[in-house]
Structure formats: structure tokens, C-alpha cells
Amino acid sequence: MSVAILGAGAFGTALACALGHAQLWARDADHAADMTRTGQNARRLPGVDLPDTVAITGDLAEIDADTLLLAMPMQQMRGFLQEHAAWLAPRILVACSKGVDLDLLIGPVGVIEQALPGARGALLTGPSFAADIARGLPTALTLAARDDALGTDLQARLSTENLRLYRNTDVTGAELGGALKNVIAIAAGMVIGAGLGESARAALMARGYAEMQRLALALGAESETLAGLSGLGDLVLTCGSEKSRNFRYGMALGAQTGFDAATTVEGAATARAVTRLAREHDIDMPITRMVAAVIDGVLTPTEAKGALLARPLTLE
């Protein structure tokens, strides 16, 4: 059985490096040609050599694989699935995105199942930076699939010497862990960018994790999933490193400086989507709500801080 990665961003390229024998599809044909010529993805993951065994293409018709890793931004996934539904339907689809669809308010596997009823979908998520995976540094991820037989097969096929996958059937928990931690990472970045200190960041992470648990459990997730790689593990990574786009974006918001508009920040759309989702389910998520308000220009970071600190005292 063969594997292809659809999406030649940093993470898709890193997965191609880790797996070795795979096809890598880039949406931009010129980008694919550049990678083929140079042996590197200078646009997204500079300084990393692609293995000779990775076949790069800009033409979907050249993809010949039964298993596809969908390494594309969350908000673009539904359109891609709908556009190529007939071609995708017979294949195993592994989402590698983290977020909540702004219109449907569901995660990546939910989007696969909605766009392609009956499709065999799974999710690859967890604490990982593309550069670490590409360079062969030890990384552990969650492979979530409702069908445990499918999960077992994918776990064996996609694990490598340095990329260790842990299997899980709690797709909802894995989806929400990966999505919600990006929102909290933005908030953590705002704390540091505004100069509020490490103690404030630690408090925000803990209270943010409580928000993650509240929403995830209300939607049927298992608490153990949120305490694992796809929840707490990913939260720790993205709230503590400037390698995280979401954290850097939060720092820019907190410091009230500019940010590269071309950089995809999954947590920004997720904050808006989750604020709606929490309202629909009557779940209290004050940090998420404040992040969305700052992103939308409704509040300044200073006003958001004041609103959070002014909340009534309560039990932990």
C-alpha cells in the first residue's frame, strides 16, 4: 500500500521527509518544479533536504496511492474535498489539520465524513513542529480513527524509527484537543507579548486547559484524550515556543505590532468558531471568547486582561 501527502507546506513536507517513500503534491505547479529541481522546500521548510525517494508533483492525476495525508489548512479542506470528491472517495483519508470549520463547526474528520459519506477517515495530530519531524528528531503523535482496525493499520504503516504514533478511537477528543490548544496558544502569546510575565502564562495555560476540557467533554470526548498528546501535550508545546505560529501571532497582538498576513494561523479562525460553538452549548469559555474579541478588534489586549481578571472569584 502506498502513501501520498497532499499539501507541500511545512508539515506536509516534514511528513514526506519522515516517511521517505511517498508522493508529495503541491497545489502550485511552479512550487513542485522548484522542489524537484532543488531537492528542498525553500518556501516552507528551508535547509531540509527531501529524500530522493519522495516523488514531487503538482498534478493530482499523477498521485497513485491508496492512503492520502491531507496536509492543508483547515478552512481550505472542505472545498478541496468537495472539488475532488469522486477521486478521493475510494481512498483512506488522514487529516493533518487542526481546527474547527467556520461554517459547519466541526473538526477535520467530521468535515471528511460530511463531504464524503462513507469515507474512511482518520486524524494525525499532536505536539510537533515540522522542522523537528523533518530532521528526524523523536516525535510522538496521536492517530485517531473511529474504526480501530483502520487505526491499527495506519499506526503500523505511518510510524517510523523517530515518529511514534499512539492509536485512539476518540476522534472528537483528538480533534478538539488539536483545535483548542491553538486558541490558548494565541492567548499565551498575548500574555508574553504584553509583558505580563511567566506566572501569568502558566495560569492562563491551566485555565485554558480547563476550558478545553469543558467543551470537549460536553461534546462527547474522553478526558483521557485531552490529557494526552493531542491535548495537554500539544498545549504545552505551542504555548511555550516561538516556533508556534499561533504563539507568535499572539505575541504580535499583545505587543500591538504587525504580523505576516501570509502566515496561516489556524487558531484565529478556530477562536471565532469555538466561541459560537460554546455559545450554542452554553459552555463558559472566557479565554477563548476574549481571544476572538481581540482578533476581531472588539477589545484591546489590555481590555481583555481586565475583563478576565474582573471575573467573580470561584472554586477551581
From TrEMBL:
Pathway terms, separated by semicolons: Membrane lipid metabolism; glycerophospholipid metabolism
Binding of NAD(+), residues: G7, A8, G9, A10, F11, G12, A130, R245
GO cellular component: cytosol
Binding annotation for NADPH: F11, R27, K98, A130, R245, V265, E266
EC number(s) recorded for this UniProt protein: 1.1.1.94
Pfam families in the record: NAD_Gly3P_dh_C, NAD_Gly3P_dh_N
Amino acids binding sn-glycerol 3-phosphate: K98, G126, S128, K181, D234, S244, R245, N246
Residues noted as binding substrate in the record, renumbered to the chain: K98, R245, N246
Keyword NAD annotated: yes
Catalytic activity from the UniProt record: sn-glycerol 3-phosphate + NAD(+) = dihydroxyacetone phosphate + NADH + H(+); sn-glycerol 3-phosphate + NADP(+) = dihydroxyacetone phosphate + NADPH + H(+)
Lipid metabolism in keyword set: yes
Every Glycerol-3-phosphate dehydrogenase NAD-dependent N-terminal domain range: 3-149
GO molecular function: glycerol-3-phosphate dehydrogenase (NAD+) activity; glycerol-3-phosphate dehydrogenase (NADP+) activity; NAD binding
Signal peptide: 1-16
One GO BP annotation of this record: glycerol-3-phosphate catabolic process
UniProt entry keywords in alphabetical sequence: Cytoplasm, Lipid biosynthesis, Lipid metabolism, NAD, NADP, Nucleotide-binding, Oxidoreductase, Phospholipid biosynthesis, Phospholipid metabolism, Signal
Compartment list: Cytoplasm
Residues in Glycerol-3-phosphate dehydrogenase NAD-dependent C-terminal domain copies: 170-304
Active site: residue positions: K181 (proton acceptor)
Stated family: Belongs to the NAD-dependent glycerol-3-phosphate dehydrogenase family.
The protein's role, per its UniProt record: Catalyzes the reduction of the glycolytic intermediate dihydroxyacetone phosphate (DHAP) to sn-glycerol 3-phosphate (G3P), the key precursor for phospholipid synthesis.
Alphabetized PANTHER family for the sequence: GLYCEROL-3-PHOSPHATE DEHYDROGENASE, GLYCEROL-3-PHOSPHATE DEHYDROGENASE [NAD(+)] 2, CHLOROPLASTIC
HAMAP family given in the database record: NAD_Glyc3P_dehydrog
Protein name: Glycerol-3-phosphate dehydrogenase [NAD(P)+]
Gene: gpsA
